[in-house]
Design a protein that fits this description.
Elements: E1 15-19, E2 23-32, E3 35-45, E4 51-52, E5 55-56, H1 59-73, E6 79-84, E7 90-97, H2 102-113, E8 124-133, E9 144-153, H3 154-166, E10 170-176, H4 177-187, H5 201-207
Parallel strand pairs: 1-6, 6-10
Antiparallel strand pairs: 1-2, 2-3, 4-5, 7-9, 8-9
Length: about 210
């Protein structure tokens, strides 16, 4: 989302944090000889009612669980990557002129976003990813790019950030769960975690932000 950079953090520790409805799971990765493996992982169960369909309903309860999962992992890292569930996101593919400076691209994305938001644009956290050249349309000559627009209610994003802060953690990445899972499946390695690692896929994908995504 805008105001939260989705980027790589070379040389700095990073915990991937999965906030599910039933538990918080964290993973910190390390790379040795070009191979990624788990450095730390941990989890903490969430009591019923803390999360409600992907939204934070009990902020202090979530902060407590984040602290417990962090402590359980044994990691000293406090920089974390979080994710938003698909139910909290609005995504839309748009076409924009190719070769625009970043500033112009951001302005056009905001103008396009206003058409799809079911709430005021000032209440939204926005981000976008340029997917690549768009196939030419009949009757057009200018080059275009496909852009994926991602938006969420700012208040919904802020609840997760506030819970992390209350737990003594610093959120430096906000991703989407779908993209983090896609990254985990493409990279692999999580299978070595407890019970085949399936429960840790999302946290693993988020932890990959420390390296190349």
């Amino acid at each position: 989302m805008k105001n939260m950079s989705i980027s790589n953090f070379f040389g700095a520790g990073l915990l991937g944090v999965d906030i599910a409805d039933d538990a918080v799971r964290v993973v910190e990765l390390r790379r040795r000889r070009g191979k990624l493996s788990c450095r730390h992982c941990g989890s903490a169960a969430l009591a019923a009612g803390i999360m409600l369909e992907g939204s934070v309903d009990d902020l202090p309860g979530l902060a407590d669980a984040l602290r417990q999962a962090h402590r359980d992992s044994g990691s000293g890292c406090t920089r974390v990557a979080l994710a938003m569930p698909a139910t909290a996101l609005i995504t839309h593919a748009i076409r924009l002129p190719a070769g625009l400076p970043e500033e112009q691209l951001e302005i056009l994305v905001e103008l396009e976003a206003a058409q799809y938001m079911p709430f005021a644009l000032e209440d939204a956290s926005l981000d976008f990813v340029t997917l690549g050249p768009a196939p030419p349309l009949a009757g057009t000559t200018g080059k275009e790019v496909d852009v994926l627009l991602v938006a969420a209610r700012r208040a919904t994003v802020q609840r997760r950030l506030d819970a992390a802060t209350a737990a003594g953690l610093l959120a430096v990445v906000m991703d989407s769960e779908a993209l983090a899972l896609q990254a985990a499946l493409a990279q692999g390695g999580w299978q070595a975690l407890p019970d085949g690692g399936v429960a840790y896929q999302l946290a693993w994908g988020l932890a990959l932000h420390r390296y190349t995504r």
